[in-house]
Design goal:
The structure is a single chain. By secondary structure, the chain is mainly alpha-helical. About 90% of the residues lie in helices and about 0% in strands. The protein is built from seven helices and no strands. α1 runs antiparallel to α7 and α3 packs antiparallel against α5.
Length: about 170
């Protein structure tokens, strides 16, 4: 389990990492999604969890979208309304993936600490979605969204780090 959460931690870091070079970012993001899927599959080998299975399938969907984004989706992304729809869908999917991973751990361990992480992730997700929608109308909301997004990223890294330390093997 320790190795699975280490893969999830590294995959999360790579998933959010961006250099601005399309080809290099593609390789980094695919590696991140791949490590996340591998981590979830290792956990699924240890225990059965429907929420983790859904999270792994959503991650596969994001990996496929990442591949499509380079070619076909570039033309689609030029349409502003469609671009907003895709970005909203990606954000909701990413938030759902992390919620389902933490929920799966909460169901397995029944730890109060993990349940607290689950509630905090849900509150951060709701705040992120709200600020995301408002950010199209206000630059202040966009700045707050960027700050909360960074906080969310560090929170997820912290949760995975704590879960790595919770297991001995």
């Amino acid at each position: 389990m320790k190795k699975a959460y280490l893969y999830l931690l590294i995959g999360t870091i790579l998933m959010f990492f961006s250099l601005g070079i399309i080809a290099l970012d593609l390789i980094i993001h695919i590696a991140g999604y791949g490590l996340m899927i591998l981590g979830m599959l290792l956990i699924l080998q240890q225990r059965e969890s429907p929420s983790l299975l859904i999270a792994s399938q959503l991650t596969i969907g994001l990996l496929i979208f990442e591949l499509l984004k380079v070619g076909v989706a570039r033309a689609i992304m030029s349409n502003t309304l469609l671009s907003i729809g895709f970005m909203t869908l990606i954000l909701i999917t990413q938030l759902a993936i992390f919620y389902l991973i933490i929920k799966s751990e909460g169901e397995a361990s029944e730890s109060l600490e993990v349940q607290t992480y689950q509630q905090a992730e849900l509150l951060l997700s709701i705040g992120l979605l709200g600020l995301y929608f408002i950010s199209y109308f206000s630059t202040l909301a966009f700045s707050l969204f960027a700050i909360l997004d960074l906080c969310f990223y560090f929170f997820i890294v912290y949760v995975f780090y704590k879960l790595i330390n919770a297991y001995r093997y």
